[in-house]
Amino acid sequence: MALEKPYLDVPGTTIFDAEQSRKGYWLNQFCMSLMKPENRARFKADEKAYLDEWAMTEAQKQAVMSRDLNRCIALGGNIYFLAKIGATDGKSFQQMAGSMTGLSEEAYRDMMIAGGRSPEGNRYTHEWERK
To answer: CA gyration radius for the chain?
Structure first.
């Protein structure tokens, strides 16, 4: 029997809970492997071959190769593990976050300095279902 999870209904947020952790286990393990220089070198030399060594879904592998971090999160990735991909690519966390919002690094930085994203337009899942 599935647990009721009212906390999942947070606008614009994927909650990393035990279910997400299980779903993304191998994706996150792959990310952690990038902490070793030799693994970063192998990944950069042939991303697909390196990813094929991990028991990830094809959707997870594709999300990594396209650097679609939002998709990685939806597929069980944890942003703190996914940051290893950005570091491997020579990107800052700020650059990664900007890419996830569709903003340039500068626009993302300016938005955060100004107080963050406006909540206007955010809706709980149950609010969208009524529309």
So the answer is: 16
